[in-house]
């Protein structure tokens, strides 16, 4: 009986020991599986982070992405690395059996952290380049503004000089009439040079004038208008016989006594113009004024005397 009791107690002790070691075994196995799962999760996160960092490298090559946005991504990845390193360190403290594997992950994270630092250096370099380029652009803009101002000043000066030159050329190109000669024309058509004329014998008159040399004036044909003015200031014209007409000069319409067409070639040119009053009109006694026009302006003035 006593032996039997001892066997029962011994069996119970054995069963208790088996139960204890079984529970301990399965408990440790479960804990190890949890540790393995945590490390596996960390490994997966590290792989995802690695992919993100390699994508970041492509983003750095993207010219359209703002530098601030690139910096934000780097900061996010650095925070992930810091978090993963802390979690790996915790896992390493709790499970000495995974030390080698965890150190491998830590080494990889350090390498990725080095990549991020390299990216930060690239961005810092780009910022410096941007500042340098911005400064150069600002300098170029200032230079451009100065050049534009200088150009406008020079252009205004050139325009003024050109306007002055044009005005000088315009004035210099004005033709001048000189060397007036007056001829009475007889009924037989003979011309007699005179300085004074008798009213009763004067009928037909020829006035010759020299258009002086002008190398600046334009060459070509032009009308020369003769305007005769009586001593009382009235114009002397003959529209009936076709001698006279009107023309525009100096902004107004003027009646001319007679005209001629000349071919001017920058050299002195003689123009002779014949005039006869209408049949019922007599020459007035006194000083007869003579005005010569061409190119829309008066180019000479003279007079002769009728007694």
Summarize the model shown.
The chain contains 3 helices and 12 strands, in the order αααββββββββββββ. With 307 residues, the chain is α+β, with helices and mostly antiparallel strands. α1 (2-61) packs parallel to α3 (99-172) and α2 packs antiparallel against α3.
Folded structure, characterized:
The protein folds into two domains: 2-134; 177-306, Immunoglobulin-like (Sandwich), CATH 2.60.40. It is built from three helices and twelve strands, in the order αααββββββββββββ. It has helices at residues 2-61, 67-94, 99-172, and strands at 177-185, 191-194, 196-197, 204-211, 220-229, 235-236, 245-249, 252-256, 258-264, 269-275, 286-294, 297-306. It has 307 residues and is an alpha+beta fold. The relative contact order is 0.08. Helix 1 (2-61) runs antiparallel to helix 2 (67-94) and helix 1 packs parallel to helix 3 (99-172). Helices cover 53% and strands 25% of the residues. It starts with a helix and ends with a strand. Strands 3, 5, 6, 9, 11 and 12 form a six-stranded mixed sheet that branches. A four-stranded antiparallel sheet has the order 2-1-4-10, with no helix packed on it. The chain has a two-stranded antiparallel ribbon with strand order 7-8.
